[in-house]
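Protein of interest.
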Amino acid sequence: MRRIAAMTSGGSSQVDSSRIGAWLIIILLIPRVARMIYPEIWVEDDFYLESAWLVSVGMRPYLDFVQPHMPLLEWIAAGYLKLFGASYLSIEILNEAAIFATSLLTYSIARRVAGRPIAIAASILYACSSLVFHYHAYERESFVAPLIVLAAIVTLDDTMPAIRQAVLVGLIFFVACAIKLTAGIPFPVMLIFIAVAYRRIASALVSGVIFAITLGAFSALLYRLYGSEFIFQTFVFHFLKGRDLALNTALYPRMILDVLVPMFFLGCWQIFARRIFNRGIILVIAIVAAEYAFYGVLSPTAWGHNYLEALPFIAIIAGMGASALALPNKTSSHRWRSLAGGAALILVSLIWIAPIINENWLHGSVYGFGFVPRAEISEVADALRAASKPDDDVIAPSFLCFEANRRELIRYPETYGVYREAEAEYARDGFFAARRHMGAADFFQLISDTRHFWVDQMRAAIASGKVSAVISDSAIQMFPLVLVPEDFLTSNGFRPKLITDHFTLWTRTPAPPPTPNQ
C-alpha cells in the first residue's frame, strides 16, 4: 500500500521535493550570511590572504615570497581580486561561496548514500559547524572540500560510462592537488572503490594515469616558471619544517569538532547495529578513515583547517546519528529510551570528551565567530594606507597589509626563517641530514631559533628609512611573532600615529626643517 500510495501521488511529491530544496537552500545560506555580517573575524593563516593579493599585483610565488603549496588557488583568487578589489569582504564572499557549494554537495552525496532526511541533517551539520565558522575568511581547504565531495559523487555514479568517470575523477583530483597536494589523500580510496565495487580496474588505472600526467605537466610548467625554488618549497620543505611535539595528533579532532563527535559515533552505531553497508556508506567511511590516518597518525603537525577536507563526510555519518535521534524507527518506549541515551551521550561528550568550549572559542571567540573587530581592522588599514605609498614595504600583520593593499617587508615571517635555515642545511648537508635535524625538531622552537633571519632585516629597514610604517603583532592574534621594541622605533624617529584597542601604527616623524643661517 505504501508503494502504491507513493506511485499515485507522484505529482505532489515532486512539488514537495522542490519546496524542501528551496527551503534547504535558504537554511544553508543563513549561516554564510550571518558569518559575513558578524562584527568580528577570525585571524589565522592570514598570509595566504596577502599572497593572493601579491600575485594580483604581479609578484611571483616562490621567488618573491615563500609559497609552500601549488599556486592554482592564488592564480584564481588573484584574478578574482583584480575584478572585485582586495578586501576582507570580497575574499570572504569567495570563501563563503565555496563553503556554501560544499554544503549543497554534501546534501547531494548524502541523499544518494542515505536518503533525504539524513542528507538534510548532514548538510545543516556541515554548514553550522564551528570549524566552518572558524575558517570563514580564506582557507585552502574550503576550496578543496567541494572538489573532493564532487569526486566522490562521480565515483558513486555507476551509471556513468567508465571512461567518462575515469577522466572526471582524475581531472577533479588534479585541480584539487594543484591547490593543495594533500587533497589527494582520498584519491587512492576512490580508485580502489571503482576497481573493486564496479570491477572497473581499467577505469581506475586510466584515472590514475590522467591524474599523474596532468599533475606532472603542471609541475613541469611551474618548474619552468619558478625553477628549483618551486621544487624545494612545494615538495622538500614540508619534511624539514619540524613537528608539533606538544600535541597529541591522534586526539586532536576532539578539540575542534565538538557536537559532530557524539553525532558521528551515534551514526557509526547505527551503521554497524543495523548493518547499513551499502556502497556509498563504505566509501564515506573509507574516506574519513584515510583522512584521519594521515592527519591523525602520519602527519607531524595537525591544524584545524586540515579537517575541513574530511568534514563533509564526517557530517554525513553524524547526520545518520542525528536522524536516528530525531526519527527513531522503534516502538514508543524504545524511542524515548533511545532518545534519552543519545542525549546523555551528547551531553557527556560536549562537557568532557569533545568539549563545546574548544579551540574554536580562543581569544574570546564564540563558536568560531572570531575575535578581531572588523571596524578596528578597517580603521587601522585605512591609516596604514594613508601613511604609506602603494609601492612601499611596511611592517605589519599580513591581514592588515591585505586590507590596506600594502606589501609586507618580510612576507610570511612564521615560515621565512625556517625556510632559509632549511634551504641552507639542505644545500650544505643534503636532504637526509637536514631531515634528521629539522624534521624532528619542535615546529615552534624552529620558528624562534630562526627568527634572526627576518629580525635583522626588519631592524635594518627601520634604521635605514626603508619602511615608513610599522605595526607590531598584537596579543589578540593566534601567534604574535613580529614585535618591534617601542624604544627602537622611537630612537629611529617613529612616533605613534594611531592607537586602537589592539594595534598601534607607528610612522616616521619628518625631520624638522633646517634652521636658516643667521
User: Anything to note?
Assistant: The chain has 23 helices and seven strands. The CA atoms of residues 98 and 310 lie 15 Å apart. The longest helix spans residues 10-37.
